[in-house]
Amino acid sequence: MSDILNKIGEAIIATADALCEYPEFFLLIGGGLFLFIYSGAVSIRRLPQAIKVLRQKQASDSGKETGQISSFQALMSAIAATVGMGNIAGVAVALTMGNGNPGVIFWMWVSALVGMTTKFFEGTLAIMYKGTDSAGEVQGGPMYIITKGLGEKWKPLAKAFAIFGLVGTLCVWQANQLVESVATVFTTPMGIENTPMLRFIMGIVMVVIVAAVILRGIKSIAAIASKMVPLMVALYLIMVLVIMAINYQAIPGVFGSIFKGAFTFDAELGGFSYFAMTALIGARRAAYVNEAGVGTASMMHGASKNTEPVREGLIAMLGPAIDSGLICTLTAIPIIIAGNYVGQTDPKGLEIALGAWGQLLPGIGHYLLMIIVFFFAFSTMFTYSYYGLKCTNYLFGAKNAKYYNYYYLAMIVVAAVVPLKVVVGFMDIAFFLMACCTMTALLLLSPRVKAAAREYFKKK
Questions:
Q1: For 233-254, what is the mean pLDDT?
Q2: C-alpha angle 424/214/83, rounded to 5°?
Q3: pTM for this predicted structure
Q4: pLDDT at residue 268 above 60?
Q5: Which has the closest alpha carbon to 86: 20, 134, 155?
Q6: 99 CB-contact burial (10 Å; exposed 0-12 / middle 13-18 / buried 19+)
Q7: Which of 277, 249, 265, 300 is nearest to 78 (CA)?
Q8: Which residues share a beta bridge with 139?
Q9: What is residue 152's DSSP assignment?
Q10: What phi, psi does 87 have (nearest 5°)?
Q11: Residue 313 has pLDDT above 50, yes or no
C-alpha cells in the first residue's frame, strides 16, 4: 500500500513540475503579451492615469455601488495576497537558477509590465460582469465573468475554476515556510529542537492570529490589508534604503549588472540559449509572484463598490507594479550586493535572503528581515482565505461558505507539522488549472474590454 501511495505522490510531483514549467509560463506570459499588444501597451501608456484614479474620490460615493469594499481596499487586499514568500525566497531562487546572473531581475520587470496588462483586463471584467450568490449578495470573480460574460453554457468552466480554487488558494506553503524561518532564526539557535510538537504549537499560534481576522469576513480582511500593506511596503523600503546607504558604492554596479546580465550573449555561456534561459527564469518567477491571469485578483476586485469597470482595471494593474516590480527589486538589491547566491547548486531562497541581510547588517540583519517575513506571510494567509471562501460560496451556497474557513485554518496546522512536497505539488496543479480557466475567459472577452476602454478614455 505504501508503495502505491509513494508512486501516486511521485506522479503528482512530476505532473506539477511539468505543468508549472513551460506550459504555465507560455499560458500566463504568452497570453499576457498578447493582451499587452492588443491593448496598445495599456500598462505603460495609462500608468499615470492609474495612479491618478486611485487617489480620486471613490465611485462608491455615488450611492450606486454594488460591493463590499472600496477600490483601494480591493487593491491592497489583492497585493496582500500576492506579496508573500515568493517576493523574498522566489527572487533568491531566480538568481541562483540563472547561474548567478542578475539579469533575471530585468526580465522580472518586463514580466511585471505584462502582468499589469493582464490585471487591467481582470479588474475591468470583475466589475463588468458581477453576479449574485444564493443569499442575494453581489459577488465577482472568474466564476461570474465566465457565466455572465460568456454565457450559461460555459458554467462547467466556472465550476471547474471554483473546484480548483478550493485547493489552489490554500496557504500551506506560506505557513510551512514561516515555521521553518522561525526555527532557523530563533528556536534552533536557542537550543530548542525543531520537533513536531514545537511545530504544532507554532501552527496553533498562526491559526489564532489568522482566525482573529478572517472569521470576521471580507470587510475585516480588507480593513487590515489596507493598513498592513502600505506599512509593510514602507518598512521594507526604508530597511533596504538603509542597506543601500551603507553600501552606496555598490549600487551602480548592482543596476549595471542587472542591465548587462539581461542581454548577455556570451558564447562561452551558451550564447542565445543562455540569454533565453535568463529571460525565461526571470519572467516565470515574476508571473508566479503577481498571479496575473490566475483569477485570484478578480475575486477581490469583484468585491469593490466601484461602478466603473475600466477605472477598476486601472487600479488593478498597479498590483504587479508593486509586488513583482518594486518589492522584488527591494529583495534583489541586498542579495546582489552580498553575492552569497553565487555558486549555489541547491538553492534555498529564504536562507539565501536571510544570509545576505545577516552579512550586510551583522547581528541584526536576519532579525529585521524576519519582521518582513512575518508581515508578508500573514498578509497572504489573511487574504487567501477569502478566495477559497468565494469558491465555496459559488459551489455550495452562501450558508455553507463559512465552513471553508475552518478547513482553511485546519490546513495551516497541518502545514506547520508535516512535509508538504506532495501537497504543494497538488496545489500547483490546481493553480495552473485555475489559470487555464481564467485566461480562457480573458482572451475571449478581451474585445469587450478594449471597447469599454476606448469609450472610457474618450470621455475622460
A1: 93
A2: 50
A3: 0.90
A4: no
A5: 20
A6: middle
A7: 300
A8: 131
A9: G
A10: -75, -15
A11: yes
